[in-house]
Design goal:
Shape: globular
Number of domains: 1
Largest sheet: none
Strand content: under 5%
Order of helices and strands: HHHHHHHHHHH
CATH topology: MetI-like fold
Number of strands: 0
CATH superfamily: MetI-like
Amino acid sequence: MTRHNRILLSCVYWAFVAYVFVPLILMVLMGFKDSKFIGFPIRSYTTDWYTGVLQDTETLTAFGYSVAIAVLSTVISVLVGTWIAVLLEGRKFWGRAVILGMTILPALIPGIISAIAFRIYARLLGIETGMGAIVWSHAVHNVPFVVLVVMARLSTLPKSQIEAARDLGADPLIAFLRITFPYLVPAIMGASIFCLLLSFDDFVRSFFLGGYEPTLPVLIFAKLKSGMSPEINAIATVALVLTAVIGVWAERFTRRMNKD
């Protein structure tokens, strides 16, 4: 690689870094502005907006509601996705490609179309809008990611280990619990954290299928209707920090398990 190409790649890289992180930095800074309006210059700073967010019952309720939905949808998507991945990986049977394609399809459909389809289908089934409908839609959307992650991990599992367990008298269930499942734990953990964050940040499906109690993204959207204020930046910053902490912890935990 020539010196000119290295300089060009470096410029592209730092331009991308600036494109991603500068808006986030500005969002955090605006959360400390001692004014009801967003904009420069920032003449004085305050932590009142963050203190208010941590004491606001509406925000804390929406946060807890979003966490509950994320946890429930993640549990469902991990159980279903892992089962489908074990069913499909390493097996050849009629209809396998169709099942895999239908499983991956929810991840390929645009969010707005998916949300409208879920809303129509929920109405046909008589499912009331609210927590149950949101959990259902999030779980369906998250299953493809679990399937892809777990299948990738399964493809590296030495078949000789399972064959040895079967030769020693283990039935398929015991072989799965003692050989396959421990091997899949890092992939399942990684997929779980990804689905958890994906569900927590999901706005479109939560908006279309939500009831009277809003999730955190829907609450932020509702507050935007009355104008942008440092309070919204403070809420978004707190959510960003928690998401980043969980993501970093998950990455280190998964790496440690892969080493073990």
